[in-house]
Amino acid sequence: QEPNEVYATAADLGYGTFLEYQKSLKSFLVLARLSYSANRSDINTLLQLIQEQYINYRFNISSGYYQSYSVQLGIQFSYALENGSLYTKALIGYQRASMPEMELVYTDQTGFREVLNWAESSANNPVFTMGVGLRRDLNALFSLFLDVEFSYSKPSFVVELNSDQGYREVSSLSRPMPIFFPSIGLGIRIPN
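The chain above was modelled as a monomer; its predicted structure follows.
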C-alpha cells in the first residue's frame, strides 16, 4: 500500500455522542441532530502494514484521533409496543471529518533515519445515517433507548506529507468512512 493509503485506514475503535431533537408529525417524527465521533489511531495495525512492506527497517509511529462532526435532518417511523416502541430512522446531512497529524520515524540497517510527518487534514462532505432502535418508557418523563446506527460518508482529503530530508508531497485522498454506532441512552420528554 502507498503511505497515504496506510495513513487513511488507521482508525480504530472510538466513541461518539449526539444531541437529537424530535418533533412529532402525525405518523412519524422529524429529527434534527448534532453529532461528534472520535476514533483513535490503530498504531499496531499501521506498524504491521508498514513492516510487511519494509522488512529491513525499524519504525516508530505517533498519532492522534480521527474525528467527525455532523449536522443531520431526518425522519423516524415508530411501531408501538407495550411501554415503548420499535423504530427505524434515516438521516442526511453535512459532516466535517478530519484525519490526525501523524509522525512516522524509520531507521534502516545502516543507521539512516528519516522522519515523515502527515499534517492534519479536514474535509467537508455529505453524510447518510440509517438506524433501528427500541424505546422503553420508564415513566411519564424518562425513556431508555437502545439503538444501532450505520453512517456512511466519503470525504476527500488533501494530504500533505513532509520529510525531515526535504521531501514534500501533496495529494488528494478520498476514502469511505463507515461508522457503526451501537448506543444506549436516556430520553427526556419536555412538556409543551
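The longest helix spans residues 43-53.
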